[in-house]
TrEMBL record:
<feature type="domain" description="Tryptophan synthase beta chain-like PALP">
    <location>
        <begin position="14"/>
        <end position="355"/>
    </location>
</feature>
<dbReference type="InterPro" id="IPR050214">
    <property type="entry name" value="Cys_Synth/Cystath_Beta-Synth"/>
</dbReference>
<dbReference type="GO" id="GO:0006535">
    <property type="term" value="P:cysteine biosynthetic process from serine"/>
</dbReference>
<dbReference type="InterPro" id="IPR001216">
    <property type="entry name" value="P-phosphate_BS"/>
</dbReference>
<keyword id="KW-0198">Cysteine biosynthesis</keyword>
<keyword id="KW-0663">Pyridoxal phosphate</keyword>
<dbReference type="Pfam" id="PF00291">
    <property type="entry name" value="PALP"/>
</dbReference>
<keyword id="KW-0808">Transferase</keyword>
<dbReference type="GO" id="GO:0016740">
    <property type="term" value="F:transferase activity"/>
</dbReference>
<dbReference type="InterPro" id="IPR036052">
    <property type="entry name" value="TrpB-like_PALP_sf"/>
</dbReference>
<comment type="similarity">
    <text>Belongs to the cysteine synthase/cystathionine beta-synthase family.</text>
</comment>
<keyword id="KW-0028">Amino-acid biosynthesis</keyword>
<dbReference type="InterPro" id="IPR001926">
    <property type="entry name" value="TrpB-like_PALP"/>
</dbReference>
<protein>
    <submittedName>
        <fullName>Cystathionine beta-synthase</fullName>
        <ecNumber>4.2.1.22</ecNumber>
    </submittedName>
</protein>
<keyword id="KW-0456">Lyase</keyword>
<dbReference type="GO" id="GO:0004122">
    <property type="term" value="F:cystathionine beta-synthase activity"/>
</dbReference>
Amino acid sequence: MRKGLGSGVYGSILDLVGGTPLLRLGRVERFFRLEGVELYGKLEMFNPGGSVKDRIGLYMLMDARSRGLVEEGAVIIEPTAGNTGVGLALGAIHYGFRLVAVMPSKMSLEKELILRAYGAYVIRTPTAVPPESPLSYYRVAEAVRNLLWMIGGRPGEGEVRKVVEKVQTLVREERVEDLRSVLESSVEPTPYAYIPNQYSNPANPRAHEETTGREIWMQTGGRVDVVYAGMGTGGTITGVARYLKRAKPSVRIVGVDPEGSIYSLVKKGMSPREAARHARPYKVEGIGEDFIPSTIDLSLVDEVVVVTDQQAFSMARMLARLEGVLAGGSSGAALYAAVKHIKTGGVRGVAVVILPDTGRNYINKLYNDRWMRENGFSTRDEEVLGELL
Ligand code: PMP
């Protein structure tokens, strides 16, 4: 902080990442008649990029810099549901990197436009393809990286744009063989193209262990008894669980899984391969997977609650009206799971539910009644949520 300035004055947008508020959801408690529980929401939309993923965007870039994996002027490429892209964009601006975000087509247009507003390139990929397909967003990110490595040194702006356009064309025209040959070509790595890869990067769960988990501990004065969190990469739940279970072994960690994802099946003992055969598309963004990333430690997750798109969306819409908290569909899923688990599991004490991102990302989706109806969802939220009363 500069001399002569008051508190609440910062030197960089990155200084505003983390330290999010914990809000008592008293109206939710009363509406759903929760007894003997203090329910708190961890408001991750208060991060400057609007989501919990600002934390890992920053951590993964700090880690890559400190290990010499990237040089100034590097292109950061990341497969992302959008929010990690925003977190990386903030870090990229600060550290002098460029960013290519690779996003499945199901993710909202708002998130794409926000990324472009921060100066990022965006490539869209098909949603319903297995992770090993050359058209999956994971593999497409690798194709971009390989093409940038082929350039050799630091790619110029025109070269980056050309690579992005080329890959977007290959994806749009489903030129699987061309993509495969880029993926299989042996190229010399350079420090000018780097995929942090939130699905395998230990800096992802570490960010949550050192920040999110610690914050929950401090903010509840160690009184926290149970935490509810959605699972995408699993970085949030794993990091939070590591910190809290070390501090207080009795803390219960409840994972939230959208219907169609494989986490609940694998937690029940099914092999990931077998579970992948049961994977189905769903609409809620940012949570659920069709494979098990190395960033999740399912042994730290005590229970998994499955939530449908309808339940998630109705609960997010209800949260906005009850508390004035405008959050995304994964927040609705987490809150739905929390209320259900508290009511059916006889939970007592201090419960924290992680609300990962802002509803502004979805204003033209779950907050648009027409979109809801066109996608076969009811807009009668109280009726849908009546099953919890
Ligand atoms: N909700 C939203 C909206 C997200 O973007 C993500 C990240 N994919 C999550 C929840 C899940 O977080 P994590 O990857 O840490 O499991």
